[in-house]
Write the structure tokens for this entry.
Amino acid sequence: MNDEETVALIAGGHAFGKCHGACPDTYIGPDPDSSPIEQQGLGWKNSYKTGKGPDTFTSGFELVWSSTPTKFGISYLHFIFNYEWELTKSPAGKHQWVAKNAAAIIPDAHDPNKKHPPMMLTADLALKFDPIYSEIAKRFLENPKEFEEAFARAWFKLVHRDLGPRDCYFGSEVPDEIFSWQDPLPPRDYELIDENDIKELKEKILASGLSVSQLVYTAWSSASTYRNSDRRGGANGARICLTPQKDWEVNHPQDLEKIINVYREIQREFNNKQKNGKKVSLADLIVLGGGAAIELAAKKAGFNLSVPFEPGRVDALQEQTDVSFYSAMEPFADGFRNYIKDPSKALAEYLLVDKAQLLCLTVPELTVLAGGLRVLGATYLYSKHGVFTETPGTLTNDFFINLLDMETEWQPVDNHSYLFKGYHRKTGEVKWTATRVDLIFGHHHELRAVAEVYASSDGREKLVRDFIKAWDKVMNLDRFDIKGR
């Protein structure tokens, strides 16, 4: 939300309702998990008088913001700007503010014969004293219709953010207006590529001079922006080519520009020679390139397998991209690429799990993707951390075999215990370097159990097949245009 939307939601939301703090919190029982079994998970039982109605306790503040708390109106803003305020305390002992020398004009929520002076929270008065918010709030006070419109739009945005793109909307009330926060995409006005085209494009990509590591890293960088929490991000739209994603540190901006230029040239040549309205999008090419690289890496490992590919992605325009939102989405860490901005701020393995849940991954999927990406060399700055193989670019189970090798002794080499060196126990020779994200697959009992499956002598083909399946899942997380998604 921007500043105007924030003010609209605060002022519009506080046109309604009240805070509850009729008593000290000593009357309030334990939280749901700590409460007795007979309370059936409700918790926070209030023993003050009736424990409800005028005796209710929630936040501990006790006030009503507006003179019409069951109707949308402007009185909340009117009170803020037309009174001076002095500090007081609620019955629960919480600091709040009461209007100086004000009459009792606020109706009581329970007793029709009772009224109260206007009262506010410190956060409410920020709309008066913060210079940016104050300017917006005054404008809304002076222009009630503008305020209503701003609140309606901000409310619609608030309650629809987690639905994802417009493709996920249905029903007769879907508005015609398109908003940038819906991650809009241009309509596809061309025919899709067929199997012969896909084969031709794969050959061109693999002959372009781009490495397996570059192709896989770029495809992962594009698709792994998806967040199931609000269904935003993903490969569709090729927003990795646009501001701000093209400049994210984790995406290798300088290398990315060269890679995208190669893809653009392949796209231009292919589209220009078509006579039947057929085209390929940059978004599809990026995903196709990753798949082609994985097929090559699997073939090097002795497995002639195909990576599924469903064309139909389109390329978003810069003006269709919510720059402020995607700027906030820049990854602090991505354990799959062995990247973290500052290892002193958080444990990298926890951030890996958070990333995995945003990508809807199971424990086996998380494990096989991390191990597979390592041996493919798809690591931040193409570093050797976690690349436990002598044949990078080949899709093997070497990561798990070498991680679980008992002849390796690991020792931290930095103050944060983020980077490690693996020494041969007998010779003292440095065999590998790794991060916490790499070593967690040998340390955590559940992850180690999966790692042992892939490290087994019969785990080679299973790893390749499972990696391809999990990869395909991530590449298509945002394909709401595909039936069944």
The mean pLDDT is 97. The chain has three domains: 3-21+58-161, 195-327, 332-475. Residues 349 and 437 are 5 Å apart (CA to CA). The first helix runs from residue 3 to 13.
